[in-house]
Amino acid sequence: MAVPTFVDRVTLHVAAGRGGNGVASVHREKFKPLGGPDGGNGGPGGSVILRVDPDVTTLVNYHHSPQRRAEHGGHGAGGHRNGGHGSDLVLPVPDGTVVSTVHGEVLADLVGPGTEMIVAQGGRGGLGNAALASSKRKAPGFALLGEPGDELDIVLELKVVADIGLVGFPSAGKSSLIAAVSRARPKIADYPFTTLVPNLGVVTAGDTTFTVADVPGLIEGASEGRGLGHDFLRHIERCAALVHVVDTATMEPGRNPVEDLDIIEHELSRYGGLEDRPRLVALNKVDVPDGREIAEMVVEELRERGLTVIPVSAASGEGLRELTFAMAAVVDAARAARPLVEATRIVIRPPSADGGGDFSVTSSPEGWRVVGTKPERWVRQTDFSNDEAVGFLADRLNRLGVETRLLELGAVEGDTVLIGDPDDAVVFDFKPGIDAGAEVLSRRGEDQRFEESRPAARRRREIEAAMDERAEGETRADVARRHDRSTGFGPMSYEIGSDDDPDA
């Protein structure tokens, strides 16, 4: 089996690195039985980055190795030691590479040396228990897991970035023409479809240096898949101008230069997107007596169409200087009108299922489905073998408003709640208003050894709740005094001799 040397379309499977897990650790030192949490965070996973490299001209490396994976992040450790960052995987691609999904959605068009695209973002590292500690949770006995990195299939499609594109029938002399005006050395033979891949040559005319590419095997019906041209027409989409290479000495019966030109133009119009490109016509093979005679017969007719027509011979060199300078003039005009393009850095992040950063709750036959960036990320970070970690997840979802939203929609205790990807969702039983922490905990996420009496905080919450039912003209102080009398909180206030006077 032949090994391809030029590949212009590949399907690539890329996987970013997973973030490292945080660690739950307690500092231990002599005479300090409880030194506090000191678990470090996990390191982020490496990302997969596509970068335009001018030295790369083909996608053949990805044809042989279609699966690429970045490095995972390191796990955290005790003593506040964070895990190492996973190394990014940088994949060099040719200038003019179009990145799309397997379904045809274009993600980016990479043009310009140094242009980058983060096609798969590395996963975040999980927080250690030192980072999770707070005034309300002094000694967390859990840590967060690292998130998985993005993993997807992409299609890389190369569109050669050339200034001039040569089009024409097979054996019209396109390869000979490139070999005559540049140092490119394509295969040349006297049979159709000699060229199986696009040829690229560098041409210098005066102070202008430009590139020339040809499209092999362009025949009638190419836009519908005949011949080889339909595979390579994409390579002239970026060209500043097109040069029709017309064979004036063909031995095939029934062909003439004008009809050949019309057929190729019809195929270009069927392909689309090339109508605005300037056209030059090179009447090739005028070194042959019959070829020169036919060229003289059609040159005026073509010029009447407004075309720049130049009789040339790739074999003898006749007309090549005039042709290269005509191409250089078109390239100079196109470059002058082109805006300055700077290298860009593109980050592709898959959109959340609900289109936003919060969440949505919908009813389904399986149960209540919660969809959103934050809930799904929190579920991925949770170690469900740790009751305290599950309680922390419940607190986070409650603060976000998930429980309130479920109650508003009519959810009752015992209903099924699903969070995450429909094919791999985490299933919960809805139990509103209960503590989900470990049994040894007085509050979710708080070590019992640090338990404190918090009557003042409870009093403030109760007063806030009573404010909604206050009478007209009552102030917060009035509500607080009424609350204290009814609960016996703090010093009692009463009038001497009133019904509230305990000594009366």
UniProtKB/TrEMBL annotation:
It comes from the Bacteria. InterPro entries: G_OBG (IPR031167), GTP-bd (IPR006073), GTP-bd_Obg/CgtA (IPR014100), GTP-bd_prot_GTP1/OBG_C_sf (IPR036346), GTP1-OBG_CS (IPR006074), GTP1_OBG_dom (IPR006169), GTP1_OBG_dom_sf (IPR036726), OBG_GTPase (IPR045086). Residues 64-87, 442-504 are annotated as: Disordered. The keyword Hydrolase applies. Residues 75-86 have a biased composition (Gly residues). Mg(2+) binds at residues 175, 195. PROSITE patterns: G_OBG, GTP1_OBG, OBG, OCT. Keywords: Cytoplasm, GTP-binding, Hydrolase, Magnesium, Metal-binding, Nucleotide-binding. Its EC number is 3.6.5.-. GTP binds at residues 168-175, 193-197, 214-217, 284-287, 313-315. It is found in: Cytoplasm. Residues 162-332 form the OBG-type G domain. Monomer. Belongs to the TRAFAC class OBG-HflX-like GTPase superfamily. OBG GTPase family. This is GTPase Obg. It comes from Nocardioides taihuensis. The gene is obgE.
